Amino acid sequence: MAKKYDLSDLSFLIIDDNNYMISIVKTLLRGFGVHEIHEAHDAAEAFEEFRNVPVDIILLDYAMDTLDGIEFARMVRTADDTPNPYVPIVMLSAYSERYRVTDARDVGITEFLRKPICAQDLHQRIIQVIENPRPFIRTPRYFGPDRRRIDDTNFKGENRRVSELKLEKAVKTENMERMINKSIPDEENTA
């Protein structure tokens, strides 16, 4: 049996340049019991709202004029004046080509939902954010939720506990040995 969640204490920020879409999403959220819903029609307005009002989850359109959803997500994750770089961001988009989903993932989008949306899918993404919060990763080129979806603790591979640096060195050494072995004539063929 699925768990029931009381979403009434959560605060949402919907960002979309389409008033009709905002209306649909607000109706769905109200149906889930959400009371505090903020809206913005572009990324600049949204960031101002985000800085002034505590938000638990952001629902963000991909394609907007001026600043798109990707740029907004980047601001939320990395801007000096961001109030909460860890806020879950669910991107809603009619553009679901693989490269767009990858772009969204690579700027720190938590979940991606293809438009047209339905109540069940939106609810599922919200519950996913609540039940399975992903740890955040900071590297020189990325800050956001861990992009790996599968935590394979049963990995039995030879390099199971090797650090990335050691693994990289091992691969380079293996490649070098392979190249050296290819360049040494086989003893049987030289006789």
From TrEMBL:
The modification 4-aspartylphosphate is found at residue 61. The keyword Transmembrane helix does not apply. Pfam families: Response_reg (PF00072). One of its GO terms (biological process) is phosphorelay signal transduction system. It comes from the Bacteria. Keywords: Phosphoprotein. Residues 11-130 form the Response regulatory domain. SUPFAM superfamilies: CheY-like. PANTHER family: TWO-COMPONENT RESPONSE REGULATOR (PTHR43228), TWO-COMPONENT RESPONSE REGULATOR ARR22 (PTHR43228:SF1). This is Two-component system response regulator. It comes from OCS116 cluster bacterium.
